[in-house]
Specification:
globular; mainly alpha; 0% strand
C-alpha cells in the first residue's frame, strides 16, 4: 500500500528516533566520556590548555587517525571468512535482497575498483576535507546563530545533554542537506558524481572516491556548514566528526551486523539502483525516493467448490498410484 508524504515522513522520523536512541546515544556517551577525561588530563598537564590551535590539531589529527583505523578494521573483516556471513552481498543476505528488490544480475554486484585504484583520489579528497575544516575551525571570526565553538575558552566543558542535543540537530540537517545535494548531483551535475558510482558501495574507502565538486556538495557542506552556522561546542563537533566518519566507512563496507547498528543496505541499494535513497531517510521520505520493493503478484483465490473438486481429484490420483 502506497503511503502519503506525511505517513512516509512519520515513519522516517520514528526510524531516526530509534537509531538515535539505540545507536548514536550510546556511542556519544562513550566518546563524551573519553573526551572529557582527555580534556581534564590536558588541563592538568598542559601549560596552555586553552590553546585554540592545539585543540584544532587534536580534533583533526585524531579524526585522521580514526578514519584510517576504521579502514583497516573493515578491510581486515573483509579478509576474514567468519565475517562473510555479515556481508549483504553474500549468502542469505544477498538472496533476501534479490527477492525483495529489483536488482541487476548478481555478477554486477562485485566491486570493480580495487583499493589501489581509489587510494590516490581518496587521499586527495581527505586533504581537501580536513584542510578546509581546519581553516574554518581556526578562523577568528565564526558567524554563529546560537553559540561559539569555544576552541579558545579555558572553561569549555559541556554537559552530555548539551552534546546530545547538538548531535540531534546536526544529524537532522545532515540528512536534509545530504539528500538535497545528492539528489541534484544525480539530476543536474551527474557528470561530477558518476565517478563515485564506479564503485558498488562494497569497499570501505570508496566513500572518499569522488570528484572535488562531489566532495564539497555531498560531504563537506552537509557535515560542516550546520555546525559552523548554527554553532556547536567543539566537543560535540569532535564527536560529530567521529560518528559521521564511522557512518561513511560502514555504509560503504556492506557489512550488516544487525541491531542496533544501522544497516548499510539503503546506501548499497543506491549504488545498485542509482535513482533512489539519496539520504539517510528523511529527505527520501519527503520526496518519495525510497528504494521500492517488488510488488508481489496477488494470490489467486479459487471458489470453495472448485478447491474441493481439485482436492478430490488429487486424492483419486494418489489412490490409483497406490493400487498400482
Amino acid at each position: 500500500m502506497d503511503l502519503s508524504r506525511s505517513q512516509r515522513v512519520g515513519v522516517a522520523l520514528r526510524e531516526f528516533g530509534a537509531d538515535f536512541v539505540c545507536w548514536y546515544i550510546p556511542c556519544t556517551v562513550v566518546f563524551w566520556w573519553v573526551i572529557s577525561w582527555l580534556q581534564t588530563w590536558i588541563e592538568t598537564n598542559s601549560e596552555n590548555p586553552e590553546c585554540q590551535q592545539c585543540r584544532v590539531w587534536l580534533v583533526y589529527g585524531s579524526l585522521f587517525a580514526w578514519t584510517w583505523t576504521l579502514q583497516a578494521i573493515y578491510y581486515m573483516l573483509g579478509s576474514c571468512s567468519w565475517a562473510q556471513k555479515f556481508r549483504i552481498t553474500e549468502g542469505q543476505h544477498a538472496k533476501k535482497l534479490a527477492q525483495e528488490y529489483s536488482l541487476p544480475d548478481p555478477k554486477r554486484w562485485a566491486e570493480s575498483l580495487s583499493f589501489k585504484d581509489i587510494l590516490a583520489n581518496s587521499l586527495k579528497n581527505q586533504l581537501i576535507y580536513f584542510s578546509l575544516g581546519m581553516v574554518m575551525s581556526l578562523s577568528p571570526i565564526q558567524s554563529t546563530w546560537f553559540q561559539r565553538a569555544g576552541w579558545h575558552e579555558t572553561e569549555s566543558k559541556v554537559s552530555l545533554v548539551q552534546v546530545l542535543a547538538e548531535l540531534c540537530y546536526l544529524l537532522l540537517f545532515f540528512d536534509l542537506l545530504l539528500g538535497f545535494s545528492h539528489y541534484h548531483l544525480h539530476v543536474t551535475f551527474y557528470k561530477y558524481h558518476k565517478d563515485h558510482h564506479q564503485t558498488k558501495g562494497d569497499s570501505p574507502l570508496s566513500g572518499w572516491y569522488m570528484t572535488t565538486l562531489d566532495l564539497i556538495m555531498e560531504l563537506w557542506l552537509p557535515i560542516f556548514v550546520p555546525a559552523f552556522i548554527l554553532g556547536t561546542s567543539w566537543q560535540a563537533f569532535w564527536i560529530w566528526l567521529l560518528l559521521v566518519e564511522w557512518d561513511g566507512v560502514h555504509s560503504h563496507a556492506a557489512f550488516d551486523f544487525g541491531y542496533p547498528m544501522p544497516s548499510p543496505k539503503r546506501h548499497w541499494l543506491h549504488h545498485l539502483q542509482v535513482q533512489c535513497n539519496y539520504s539517510n531517510g528523511l529527505f527520501d521520505a519527503f520526496l518519495g525516493t525510497e528504494a521500492q520493493k517488488k510488488e508481489l503478484a496477488p494470490e489467486i483465490q479459487f471458489p470453495t467448490l472448485l478447491v474441493r473438486k481439485s482436492n478430490r481429484s488429487q486424492d483419486a490420483i494418489k489412490s490409483v498410484k497406490t493400487m498400482d
